[in-house]
Write a structure and sequence with these properties.
- By secondary structure, the chain is mainly α.
- The chain has helices spanning 2-27, 57-61, 76-95, 100-122, 127-138, 144-168, 176-214, 224-236, 238-248.
- Helices cover 70% and strands 0% of the residues.
- α1 (2-27) runs parallel beside α4 (100-122), α3 packs antiparallel against α4 and α7 (176-214) packs across α8 (224-236).
- The radius of gyration is 20 Å and the shape is globular.
- InterPro entries: Prepilin_IV_endopep_pep, Prepilin_pept_A24_N, Prepilin_peptidase/N-MTase.
- This is Peptidase A24A-like protein.
- Pfam families: A24_N_bact, Peptidase_A24.
Length: 250
């Protein structure tokens, strides 16, 4: 029974954080303050009442529409809140503890979620949020110096690959934002698991790439969503991937 209370508490905490992520996702790319003014309807500009701003539940109660002008509210808002709530529970199931490192880990992956959505919308991410997530990832465990070193090594390795592709192949395969996410991967996973995460991210990116190819479209495919998902998959199943890596050299 005690575990279920913890799960419910963390899920509720997570959806509240998800509501804040929605603010970051909307305001940061527009260089707007995340503190003021209070949330308002982007269509009629009416200030949203507190009871109209309860994560997930208000969207359901209002039937996905503004309480005043009845303009549709994107379903993406409650989805992001729900995903953040699930994220809070999954991280607890992995770490089995609620301490400072739980919160830095949760903040890191929440930040990656926000960056992924912003990258989908704008094909670019704000440096201030990106660097904040990198800093949080370095403090996700007690091995702060090791995390910092791994972050630098992965950033360095990805920078070399980026330079090679741009110089010899004349193709911009990674942006500066991707390199910082590489640092997050290094801090969270270490060198070996970062390589696996990058590989998984590339595999995940192939699916939409094939779709666009079949549709004869050539959009700029954002890579941060795949890097973020690949990082979480490898982090969550790190025991399996560590065993797999060890077996290669057994």
């Amino acid at each position: 029974m005690e575990n279920y209370i913890i799960y419910i508490f963390l899920f509720l905490l997570g959806i509240c954080v998800g509501s804040f992520l929605n603010v970051l996702i909307y305001r940061l790319p527009l260089n707007k303050s995340i503190i003021s003014p209070p949330s308002s309807c982007p269509n009629c500009n009416t200030k949203i009442k507190p009871w109209h701003n309860i994560p997930i539940f208000s969207w359901i109660f209002l039937k996905g529409k503004c309480a005043y002008c009845k303009e549709k509210i994107s379903i993406r808002y409650p989805i992001i809140e729900f995903l953040t709530g699930i994220l809070a529970v999954l991280i607890y199931l992995k770490m089995k503890n609620i301490d400072i490192f739980y919160f830095t880990t949760f903040a890191t992956f929440s930040g990656l979620l926000a960056l992924a959505i912003i990258d989908i919308d704008y094909k670019a991410v704000p440096d201030n949020l990106n660097l904040l997530v990198l800093a949080l990832s370095i403090f996700h465990s007690p091995d702060i110096l090791e995390n910092f070193k791994n972050a630098l090594l992965v950033i360095g390795g990805m920078s070399i690959i980026r330079w090679y592709l741009s110089y010899f192949i004349k193709k911009e395969a990674m942006g500066e934002g991707d390199l910082i996410i590489g640092g997050v991967m290094g801090a969270m996973l270490g060198i070996n698991l970062s390589l696996i995460a990058i590989f998984i991210s590339a595999i995940l990116a192939i699916i939409p790439s094939i779709y666009f190819l079949l549709q004869k479209k050539e959009p700029e495919l954002p890579f941060i969503p795949f890097l973020a998902l690949g990082t979480f998959i490898v982090w969550y199943f790190s025991n399996f991937f560590n065993s797999y890596w060890s077996s290669l050299y057994a």
